[in-house]
Amino acid sequence: MSYRRRRRGSRIRPYTFTGGRTRSRHPLMVQTLISTADPSIDPPRNLMPESERILLLCRETRSVAEISAELKIPLGVTQVLLSDLADQGLVYIHPTITGHSPSENQVLERALRGLERLFQ
Amino acid sequence: MVSNDSSSDTFSKMSTKIVIAGGFGAGKTTLVGSVSEIEPVTTEAVMTEASVVHDDTTAVPQKVTTTVAMDFGRITLDEELILYMFGTPGQARFWFMWDDLVRGAVGAVVVVDPRRLADCFDAIDYFEQQQRIPYIVALNKFDGQLNYTGEEIREALEISDNVPIIDFDARDRSSAGHVLKELLVHALANSGSQSELVG
Ligand SMILES: Nc1nc2c(ncn2[C@@H]2O[C@H](COP(=O)(O)OP(=O)(O)OP(=O)(O)O)[C@@H](O)[C@H]2O)c(=O)[nH]1
Ligand SMILES: [Mg+2]
């Protein structure tokens, strides 16, 4: 075979996702689950329409990507709105399992057992 | 949407993610669709291009926005644990997005069309260079026989010895599910050897 994978030296990075704005405050990844903190109360009056829609939608738990897709709000914007809602205590950000710490191994094993149940 | 059931507290739910990467048309969306409990969903990210560095028609730096679509699927593993699968955009020019998609992933599958090996160079390159996320290589057989053995492909693509290479049929639910299990087994075997601060 004549294929050789080429090595790239440095990578240019011409784009930004959200300007890094949400990064330091909340671990909001595409898979992170979000729930409205108190589904029994109405959203506060002063919210932007998109934020209000997020609060109503997340009365049932959803991931950041699902919120973005269902409300047709680009991912980066969704992350910024969620970060602001989290600052105001209006949404709950669920733990995200990354497998990067050995303490998460039990959850990874649960994940594997789940897959084994589903795909014999 | 994750259905609320009364037997478990909503707030105890958690999620995890694997990334499905690979060349253009290699079968990433097909894999996700075979195992997902929902139709693969497409979401869009608007990217702001700081300056024009490719498709370069004018030499003048300017701001341009580009919309990138990515698709994802979901598997409810148990009542409190949801697995999301995210397909990376096939076009190589979108590799810069991978950091955002890959961040916090338990692992990645690089789907390879063995008839068009060159198309997966970018993906293999990416995962070989970043040493944080465990990955496996899955050869999508399409209809035919594989012309090369896994080891020939390992050598051609310069894939590390410890990276599993398996073949599968992206259209087949159980075959695609087997790929996910292999990835989890590989991630568990490697856990502790990687570290990344998240959040
Ligand atoms: N015959 C056959 N066709 C397949 C198989 N896997 C995928 N395809 C077809 O190949 C085409 C590309 O598959 P996709 O799953 O869309 O590939 P992809 O990697 O998501 O492509 P991009 O997102 O465009 O990069 C589709 O028309 C599929 O139906 C396979 O195992 N056998
Ligand atoms: Mg696709």
UniProtKB/TrEMBL annotation, chain A:
Source organism, top-level taxon: Bacteria
Protein name in UniProt: DUF742 domain-containing protein
From TrEMBL, chain B:
Taking the record's annotation, the residue ranges forming a coiled coil are none
According to the record, the segments passing through the membrane are none
- Among the Pfam families in the record, one is ATP_bind_1
- Keywords in alphabetical order, please: GTP-binding, Hydrolase, Nucleotide-binding
Q: Name one GO molecular function term.
A: hydrolase activity
State the family it belongs to: Belongs to the GPN-loop GTPase family.
Q: Please report the name of this protein according to its UniProt entry.
A: Signal recognition particle receptor subunit beta, a GTPase
Q: Which organism is it from?
A: Marinactinospora thermotolerans DSM 45154
